[in-house]
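Researcher: Please generate the 3D structure of the following complex. Treat every line as part of one assembly.
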Amino acid sequence: MTRIAIVGIGIHPFGRTEGVSGQDQGSYAVRAACKDAGVEWGDIEFAYGGSMAAGAADTMVSKLGLTGLQFINVANGCATGGSALLSAYSTIKSGAYDLGIAIGFDKHERGAFRVKTASSGRDWYGGTGLALTTQFFGMKINRYMSEHGISQRTLARVSAKAFRNAELNENAWRRKPLSEEEILQSAMLSYPLTQYMFCSPGEGGVALILSRADQAHKYTKKPIFLDSAVVKSRRFGSFEVLAPSLALDWSAGPTVDTSKKAFELAGIGPEDVDVAQLQDTESGAEIMHMAENGFCEHGEQEFMLEKGETEIGGRLPVNTDGGCLANGEPVGASGLRQVYEIVHQLRGDAGKRQVPNDPKVGYTHVYGAPGISGVNILSR
Amino acid sequence: MALTQRSIKDEILELTADGPRLIGMRCKDCDNYVFPYQEGCNRCTGTNVEQVRLGTKGKLWAWTVQGFPPKAPPYLGEASPKKFEPYGVGYVEIDGQLKIEARLTESDPEKLQVGMPMELTTVTLCEEDDRDLVTYAFAPCA
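Model: Done. Output below.
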């Protein structure tokens, strides 16, 4: 079976870049990825790209060059980047093409996401004051903390780690380390989550070039293999963001299903992963996603964070680039940023934030509205 | 002061003489409930569904407190940072039916607890055409 390799990566710094459109941040990342792979834009046979708030990706060909390639726009909520990557992966696996690119970028207004839930008539859900993704995260972690004995201090530890890691990442947005006390005492946005426990919608762009593994040597000395790429939606009974009602029945969320499938396809288990990027929309999400992705039992996170097991030098480094907490969440680009970081970690060129002991297997996970998850497993 | 109340949307919140009622969907084949009403069952995938008034009493299942003003639009309540007051948000489990997401009249974390009994009420968002525009909420009850 055809294996798929990532042979070129590019990023536009995350955060706020006044005067540069989201799409231009995407184009910047595309050019950087082409340079990294040693190819020209004209060599790229196909592209999948998307943004949530910064326009159609395919129009960027007017600046990159009108080469006639197959370019398909992807829009899949928080899994937009993951879906572009999965589509590129599947396209090469199918044999249709040998070299392609996955592109994600975005540029959001300041503050919490403005969610409009009615296309016509009165938006009663938003009008009532319920159309805020932040509320879901507050409710989910609040319930989880009392069920599994997670303290608010542990939430602060996750954020402190993110900003500490970001200080070592020149492409991150929030690079100033904050103490656990500063995090705990910042404004309470959605109990029990404070301001510095939440990521912010932001800006940024990422592009990843993929090829058939047997041709990867043409582009790079260090190909990173994409062993599985999975996207799944929710099943009946799961607890999801922006849901006016939930069933009495209970089922695990899409993260659990997606993770299981990804491990099955890669033929490995959570114990084989050396470095992971997990969706940290807020610090509680990282904690819950550690267990939902199979890296620990529910409740073990309290001890793991206390012992520093998810630090860069720990047993399972998580969000080594600062995650969403320190990079912000430009929705279209966010999932691809995780893969970008894993490629650096597995190539061994992550600089000051390099995970020690020669990591071989990396893992990325996104979760978002309206109950969707994407997981990638990479190896070298 | 406004003379009467007006529902944020009659199709989902009915203001009756006996108090507010939420309108949901019940599947006649598998007895699944969804709020608001929709024309297909998300459990059995069937379409043999009916509109029903949902139960008004339940237990708090999960909660948080909205601590900053939501963006307006779409929010219809007080969104100015100076006048905004935090409000509770939670899911209330209606026995034998479903869990409904709603505002809570209580916003003090010390007074909110999973499992506490709650009942349906309304809160005023703003005035519209000389009437109080109201939406649904749950209040702690004995």
